[in-house]
Amino acid sequence: MTAAGTPTAGPREFSVEVFPPKTDQGVERLERELAQLASLCPAYVSVTCAAGPEASERTHRTVTWIRARLGAVPDVVPHVIAAGATRPSVRAVLSRYRALGIRHLVVVRGDVPAGAAEVAGEFPHAGDLIAFIRAETGDAFRIEAAAHPEVHPEASGAEADLGHFAAKVAAGTDAALTQYFYNADAYFTFVESCRRRGLALPIVPGIMPIVAHERLVRFSTTAGVEIPRWLRLRLDGLASQPETLAAFGVEVVGRLCERLLAGGAPGLHFYTMNRAEPTSTLWKRLGLGGS
Predict the structure, then answer these.
(1) pLDDT digits 0-9 by tens, 85-112
(2) What is the pTM of this model?
(3) DSSP assignment of 74-120
(4) Domain boundaries, the chain
(5) Given a cut of 50, is residue 5 above it in pLDDT?
(6) 8, pLDDT greater than 50
């Protein structure tokens, strides 16, 4: 048995995530970064999506563009979000991805727009959207959903959040990708709680490389991610030394990844923020393969 309370079974899967660029400059940059990410030979490259038809179109365009450059290997996996979605809009999205040969999705609720009281559209929760996709397409897609080891920032508590996750699993989730974190115990405790509920699906840790101090703090506050006090203080002290901070970040996140894998994590999912080098450095440090 592993530290996560479940035996390790099957090959581990290591993947990366990018977001759709909004400008020509962003496209050029992603093309450069993508070549380096592809050289790592990840199991797949996921592409995020924001709310709204324009964002959905941008994600589809990016998925198509990546497939044209990389082919079918590695797999390209679009995010499909519940926020703002309707049954007709989801049917159209699924049809377009099936026509591209896509058979793997990340299905999430998506962010509530600032100032909105609730999520617009016909799917209040990710579980509702997952259930609809299963009803429409059966097993045509492998579906991954989000998990929050440190509890979703909008949840009323840990048990309520676990209940929402269980509902997503019951709706037809095949595997989960977690929000990033810097406390391995949060992940192991979450996995153990899932196993006690009979949720046996793979739960892959999300990994955020540390590269920019202020941006990380700001993003973590919004996402409900705890930066441990000792780490926050070290980052504060290195804020004016970007190269030293980057090296320190590789050491900290590298040790986190090593502990997760030693404890039985079924893989790692890297949030690259469209920057290949930090993920590439960690990938090579961990000996995950690639050229």
Answers:
(1) 999 999 999 999 999 999 999 999 987 6
(2) 0.94
(3) SEEEEEEE-TT--HHHHHHHHHHHHHHT--EEEEE--PPPTT-SS--
(4) 13-286
(5) no
(6) no
Cβ atoms of 254 and 190 within 8 Å: the answer is no
Q: Is 118 a catalytic residue?
A: no
CB atoms within 10 A of CB 93: 22
E-only strand ranges, the chain: 13-18, 44-47, 75-81, 104-108, 142-147, 175-180, 203-207, 267-271
> Alpha-carbon distance 34 to 274, whole Å?
8
Q: What is the largest CA-CA distance in the chain?
A: 53
Q: Looking at residues 253-270, what average pLDDT do you find?
A: 98
Which of the following CATH numbers is that of domain 13-286: 3.40.50.2300, 3.20.20.220, 3.60.130.10, 3.90.1150.10? 3.20.20.220
Please, what sign has the CA dihedral across residues 6, 10, 11, 13?
A: negative
- Between 116 and 42, where is the model more confident? 42
